Amino acid sequence: MPLALVTAAVMLVGWFPLGALWHQQSLLDSTAAQISALKTQQHALRLQAESIDSQAAATLLAREQYQLVAPGQSLIQVLPGNGVGLVSQSIGDPGLQPLVSPSSVSSLVPGPPSPTPVHVSSTRGFVARLLRTLEFWR
After folding, report:
1. How much is the pLDDT for 125?
2. How far are the Cα atoms of 34, 60, 62, 75, 117 from residue 66, in angstroms, in the given order?
3. Other beta carbons within 10 Å of 129
4. pLDDT tens, position by position, 17-51
5. Quick check: 45 and 52 in contact, CB under 8 A?
6. Which of 58, 71, 88, 94 satisfies CB 3.0 to 4.6 Å to 80 for a cystine?
7. Is the four-CA dihedral 93, 99, 104, 109 of positive or negative sign?
8. Residue 83: closest CA among 103, 111, 62, 112
9. Per-residue pLDDT tens listing for the chain (138 residues)
10. Smallest Cα–Cα separation from 95: which of 107, 77, 83, 113?
11. Number of C-alpha atoms within 13 angstroms, CB side, residue 126?
12. 84-119 as b/e, with b when 16 or more CB fall inside 10 Å?
């Protein structure tokens, strides 16, 4: 009888899938953590949806994020200039930038565009096209 109990204990310890159970439990724990995070996100999204449920909030959201206007209105966007006479361009409302003096208006007018160099190959035909295609190898 003691030999049978020892043999049964050895067989139980040897064939018991302890590693597999441990791995499955860790998978269950990570899945439960993911579910908890998703529930938290769902709750936050539900609160956000409730906060913009009114018509006024939806209109404000449409104007701020999507630049939509009500029927009969016009959308006008003022873009910052990119000239030499401008003070450093700041991020934000371009209406908060200082005014440009009238004497520096001539410096804001862009001059003629500079010519761009054109690479002309002396060879023509298939070889020239092949070399231009494989130009990144240089």
Report:
1. 80
2. 32, 10, 5, 11, 41
3. 12
4. 777 888 999 999 999 999 999 999 999 999 988 88
5. no
6. 94
7. positive
8. 111
9. 889 998 888 888 777 777 788 899 999 999 999 999 999 999 999 998 888 888 888 888 888 888 888 888 888 878 777 655 444 545 667 677 777 766 665 555 555 555 555 555 455 788 887 877 777 665
10. 77
11. 0
12. eeeeeeeeeeeeebeeeeeeeeeeeeeeeeeeeeee
Which structure tokens are listed for 122? 């002396």
For 23, 24, 25, the CA distances from 28, given in Å and listed in that order, are 9, 6, 5
Q: What is the pLDDT of residue 118?
A: 53
Does residue 44 contact residue 37 with C-beta atoms inside 8 Å?
no
Residue type, 80: P
Structure-block tokens of residue 12: 């139980």
Q: Count the Cβ atoms, other than its own, within 10 Å of residue 136.
A: 5
Sequence spans of domains, the chain = 22-70
